[in-house]
Amino acid sequence: MTAQADIPAEKAPPAKPAPTERLPLAERLIRTPVLLPALTFILILLLWEFGTRLFNVPSYVLPAPSRIVEGFGVVSFGRWMEHVWSTLRVALLGYLVSIAVSLPIAVGLSKSRFLSRSLYPLLVVIQSVPVVAVAPIIIVVLGTDDAPRIVITFMISFFPLVVSMTTGLMATPPELIELSRSLRAPVRREITQIRLPYATPYIFSGLKISITLSVIGAVVAEFVAAEVGIGYFIQFSTSMFRLPQAWAGLAVLLVMSLALFQAVNLTQKYFFPWSLPKDGR
Amino acid sequence: MSTETDAISFADVGQTFLTDNGPLTALSGVNVNLRRHEFVAVLGPSGCGKSTLLRLTAGLIKPTEGTVSVFGHPVSQPRDDIGIVFQQATLLPWATVEDNVVFPAKHKRGRVSAKDRAHAREIIATCGLAGFEERLPGELSGGMQQRVGIARALFLNPDILLMDEPFSALDALTRDAMGFELLRLWQASPKTVLFITHSIPEAVILADRVVVMSERPGRVIEDLKVPLGRPRDESSLRSVEMQDFLAHLRGLLIKDKVA
Ligand SMILES: Nc1ncnc2c1ncn2[C@@H]1O[C@H](COP(=O)(O)OP(=O)(O)OP(=O)(O)O)[C@@H](O)[C@H]1O
Ligand SMILES: [Mg+2]
Fold first, then answer.
1. Distance from the CA of A26 to the CA of which of A15, A206, B215, B256 falls in 20 to 30 A?
2. Does A183 touch chain B if contact means CB atoms closer than 8 Å?
């Protein structure tokens, strides 16, 4: 009998990657982590620095990196932290509100054709509203504290979450839903034990898009009305023609966005490794 | 005729689905009985309603005509004594082999006892998966995944096993091996098996009876006892008699396709 025929293959150790020494130099460079992007980044900074000096580019057009670094020094570290904290807080709260609102909506959309027929068009309309144009109205209605900023952030970041979560919840293999029904399990468990975990890869792609959008949302809100925050700082600096300072703010924003994105990435990698695509990360 | 001892009986069963393009009759006038612990294979062209037959038995849908009975009772909802194996193993990719096998308990009752786990490990061993309890499905070959699928279906100790083309996604060698493995499990712990397949040799080597269905709307065109004793092995189909039997079945399916 060949009953166990397919077992031995399973026990074979995974093929080891070829030793690096044998690879040609170019291939080794490509495979070294961080090296290539770092080199590119440094090269661009150098070109930028010497280009702006060589051609005497005025700082209000494009300040040299060294001028931008000086721009950091104009503001105290404590004040920087106030700006960062304000933007970060609004972005994260808006993000959390987006998640909290999207999840029940997505569950509803995926479980009920009535809801998906009636609610989805409304969501598309909300999504299509140019938030920047409505932001002043929201501020007037909700006042000038965090609430309107969180609402604006939410409006910018929730839609990709709804779409990715709904798609994910509907992507469950129908056989598993039949398995659930054949066990006469409560619908609640069908969602928590089957649909939601199955949707994880989709949810994370939405989470990655939305975290970046949340930072954008927070900045848009600060452009409209704020006395603190990186968005406010950039706008204020620009209005005073302190361009290197504005660029410094931009750099902080960029780092914040990248760090948040990476945080989402790592959360997926460490807590949901099975949800990553098979070929690399 | 249906009798009290029949495990599954279809009496004049018809199934019409309402689709966007109007009504679609998947099954019509189906009469089949499966005795307790009988292994019955269903052969038929694609779309003739084989999976529908299985869903009706599982209580996932209700027949629009006739009655489906399990152990003498008309099926009105899913029952605990039926296990289902699907074409794709459809395991939970985030759960280990053991967690996949205890999943019916977890899903049905909301929690898993130590006894459930011990039971699961026992079944895992019988299905030839010992040592793989902590693996994730993604780390297993297709054949191994389907073993897990079978182990999961066996977890609640069903009297009836419904299998919808369970081995059709596997390569030919693994497929044959899995067939004999299934026979071994079935002989060790007898169950009524409704086995759907596209493969004539697979149906014949496994089953006590082969039910052949027509193109849609699916009807039973023949219901034949397999003229083979047990135990069976790779050489069982070599005799002239068996070759004739296979050719007869092939003729039925092809004739139906041409007509
Ligand atoms: N829920 C449903 N709604 C509408 N039509 C359906 C539904 N389920 C099945 N059908 C239709 O009924 C027919 C029979 O389907 P079924 O899945 O039972 O066929 P099958 O014999 O299992 O086919 P295959 O060999 O391809 O698996 C098909 O034409 C299918 O499109
Ligand atoms: Mg089918």
1. A15
2. yes
Instruction: Tell me which chain A residues have a C-beta less than 8 angstroms from the C-beta of B181.
Output: 3
Verify whether the Cβ–Cβ distance B94 to A200 is below 8 Å: yes
DSSP A57: -
Question: CATH homologous superfamily of domain A83-280?
Answer: MetI-like (1.10.3720.10)
User: Which of B13, B20, B52 to probe ligand 1 with, by most ligand atoms within 8 A of CB?
Assistant: B52
Spacing of C-alpha A217 from chain mean position: 12
Q: What is the pLDDT of residues B50-85, one digit of tens each?
A: 999 999 999 999 999 999 999 999 999 999 999 999
CA–CA separation, A156 vs B105, rounded Å?
A: 42
Nearest 5 degrees, angle CA B104-CA B110-CA B115? 65
Q: CB–CB of A185 and B108 under 8 A?
A: yes
CATH superfamily assigned to domain B82-158 = P-loop containing nucleotide triphosphate hydrolases (3.40.50.300)
B24 CB under 6 A from ligand 1?
yes
The reply to whether B82-158 shares the fold of B1-77+208-243 is yes
Cα–Cα distance, A187 to B72 (Å, whole number): 29
Which residues on neighbouring strands pair with residue B162, listed in sequence order?
B84, B194
* B144:A193 CB<8 A: no
d(CA A85, CA A96): 16
> A175 in contact with B at a CB cutoff of 8 Å?
yes
Computed on alpha carbons and rounded to an integer, the radius of gyration of chain B in Å comes to 18
On whether any CB of chain B is under 8 Å from the CB of A278, the answer is yes
Domain boundaries B1-77+208-243, corresponding CATH code:
3.40.50.300
pLDDT tens digits for range B161-201 = 999 999 998 999 899 999 999 999 999 999 999 999 999 99
Strand order in the sheet with B160-164: B82-85, B160-164, B192-197, B39-43, B209-213, B220-225
Two structure tokens written together for B180: 């004999």
Identify the residue among A183, A202, A278 best suited for mutation to test binding to B, counting B beta carbons within 10 A and taking the highest: A183
Amino acid identity at B203: A
Q: What is the dihedral of CA A135, A138, A139, A142, to 10 degrees?
A: -160
Which amino acid belongs to residue B20?
Answer: D
> Hey, is the C-beta of A12 within 8 angstroms of any chain B C-beta?
no
Structure confidence at residue A10 as a pLDDT band (50, 70, 90): very low
Identify the band that residue B12 occupies on the pLDDT scale cut at 50, 70 and 90. very high
How many C-beta atoms lie closer than 10 Å to residue A177's C-beta?
16
